[in-house]
Nucleotide-binding universal stress protein, UspA family
Amino acid sequence: MIIIDAMMVCLDLSDIDEKLVAFTRSICQRLPVKKVYFVHNIKTSELSEDFRETFGDIDLSKEVEANISDIVAEHFAGGCDHEVLVSEEPNTEVMMADLVKRYDVKLTLLGKRMSNKSTGSLGTKLLRILPCSILVFPETASFNIERVLTPIDFSDASVHALRLSKSLADELRLSLEIMHVYKLPTQYFPLISEEKAIKKAEEVVNGKFKELQKRHTEVAGVPYTLVRAAGKSTAERISLQLRKGKHDLLVLGLKGNNPIPSLSLGSVPTKIYNMDIDTPLWLVYSEEVIK
C-alpha cells in the first residue's frame, strides 16, 4: 500500500493554484495522505519600490495566507489534515527543500504552465534540489487517472518506479503499461542487416523483461511495449507513446546517484518536464536514494 505521511503543495498565487488544491483533494480521497502543507514563499527582494510606496507596512504574509486559506476552504473540502505555510525567504527552492526535510515530506505537488506562459525555471530548480518524489501537474491535465505509463531502462531507479506504479494500479484499479525505448547502432548499417539488428535487439530486451519478471513476480502480468528510437530521443518516444495510448499518468524513476545536484536529475526527466504535455508526471525517488 502507498502511504504518504506528508505532502507539500507549491502555490504561486496564479490561476493554477485552484487546480492544484482540487487535485490534491482528489489524491487525498484516493490515497492515504496524513497531512498536506500548502506552501508559498514571498520573495520580498523582488517587490518593486512602487509596491512599497503604495502599500507601506502591510503584513503581506498575513494577506497571502488568508488568500490561500480561502482557496483551500473552497477546493479542499473533504481533504485531510492540512496547514498553510507562508514564508519570506530570498531563495524559494532552498526554503522548500528545508521544509521537505523538516516535515519529512514524501511527495511534492508542483504545477506547470505551458511554455508560452512561463519559462519553468523555478520548477526545474525545484526538481533538482527537493529531496523527495515530485508530482508535476500541467495546467491542462485532467484529474481523472485511469491509465498509467511507466518507461523503464532496467536500472534500479526505473524498477523502483515500476513497482510503485504496480502498487498504485492495484490499489486504485488502474491500467498499467510498461515501455522500453531501444536504440540500434546505426553506424554499422549496411554492414549488418537492419532487420536482423532489430530482431536481435528485441530478443535481448525480451530476455531482460523475463529476468525482471522472475525477480519481481508482481509485475509478471503487466503488458510491455518495445519502441525503437529510430532517430528520435527517448523523451520524444515516451511523449508519443503517451498520446498514442491516451495515458493519464507518467511515472519515471530518478537515479539521483550523481553527487553534483545539477546533474542528478537525468536528461530524460528533464526533457520530458520541459515538454508541453497534458499528462501528470510522477518523478519517483526511492527511500535509499533520498537517504
User: Anything to note?
Assistant: The chain is about 40% helix and 20% strand. The first helix runs from residue 17 to 30.
